[in-house]
Design a protein that fits this description.
- There is one protein chain.
- The protein is mainly alpha-helical.
- It has one domain (15-40, 52-139).
- The protein has helices at 16-35, 54-79, 83-103, 114-139.
- Helix 1 runs antiparallel to helix 2, helix 2 crosses helix 4 (114-139) and helix 3 (83-103) packs antiparallel against helix 4 (114-139).
């Protein structure tokens, strides 16, 4: 399969140093947000602490999905874009997904939930399948 090129991006956004800088900055930001304490955050997300209502959990689950779609896509974009870079992106995002859930237990007021793990994996899967679909379209 041929690599996917992203013609909608300005040429200067294709510089490898910029691609890796954006990817690493996003990953660092996302990592900190995911493992930080709810009551003593390092990065203020603007979401006040509160009881786990359905609406609150829905919002957080949606943010996990969006975050992992973004993470997987950025790692693929920075590493390639090729089939190998998609595997790299999925692997890094998967490690990050499980590592951040585990590290939340050290925050004191956080814990691992199966909903978060599933949302993380769903986000990785959505991004990966979307990238794969683009390859299939380009191959025709």
């Amino acid at each position: 399969m041929r690599p996917i090129h992203l013609p909608m991006l300005p040429h200067w956004l294709e510089h490898p140093l910029l691609k890796w800088s954006i990817t690493l900055l996003w990953t660092s930001f996302f990592f900190i947000v995911l493992i930080q304490s709810t009551y003593h955050p390092v990065i203020n997300t603007g979401i006040p602490p509160g009881p786990p209502t359905f609406e609150r959990e829905f919002i957080f689950t949606s943010l996990h999905i969006i975050g992992y779609i973004t993470t997987t896509t950025l790692w693929w974009w920075a590493a390639g874009p090729s089939r190998k870079s998609l595997f790299i992106a999925m692997t890094i995002a998967g490690i990050l997904a499980f590592l951040t859930e585990y590290l939340q237990t050290f925050a004191g007021d956080r814990n691992v939930t199966i909903t978060d793990v599933m949302a993380n994996l769903y986000g990785i899967s959505v991004a990966s399948l979307a990238i794969w679909q683009q390859w299939l379209k380009k191959g025709r």
